[in-house]
Design brief:
Alpha/beta knot; 8 helices; about 40% helix; tRNA (guanine(18)-2'-O)-methyltransferase activity
Length: about 220
Amino acid sequence: MINPERFHKIRRLLEQRQPDLTVVMDNVNKPHNLAAIIRTCDSVGIETIHAVSNRPSIRKKQKTAGGSTRWVQLSLHESMENLANTLKSNGTRLLAAHYSSTSVDFRSIDYTRPTAIVMGAEKLGPSSDTISLVDQAIHIPMQGMAESLNVSVAAAVILFEAQRQRLAAGCYEKIALEKETLEKRLFELAYPSIAEKLAMQAKPYPPLDEEGRLLD
């Protein structure tokens, strides 16, 4: 039986999730960076993030990092093109964190719109193929000798700007997750062991009362 206070905290977390804001990690492979980005995504209310790599070794690291937290769902992909097409078909705009002659200051973007922020591999940034698929490149202005920030730090800077804008717009005050999705995730987060067993048996989750008690 889950503590009612914790149950209400989890429900409140899900009620503030922003399903139309996400991050795409393009071949990001260092475990500490992956884990840091995932923690930041949880902090700003992101429900699902994406990781792309055509190399099994990188996908294994990405999957391991995703398993380090149950609060954010990680979806793995082998093709950036397929993922980009899927996101765009849902009305999501793709922004690549990448400095170029056509990139714009990250603070000039309206992050209250459905947005996917693409973060590239350490040192190299997003691949040229990825850059060709996004709608806009953005950059963080730098006044020092360093040309760029660590990928996890850059992701945090951009994501907390997105959070700032969404807080000001009242995005966190309305429930954005679909009711069925919210209830499913609520059960999984409140009763992870039971949820895992039921999923393996292809059985539905039992309903919960307002205090998180199992009704069946």
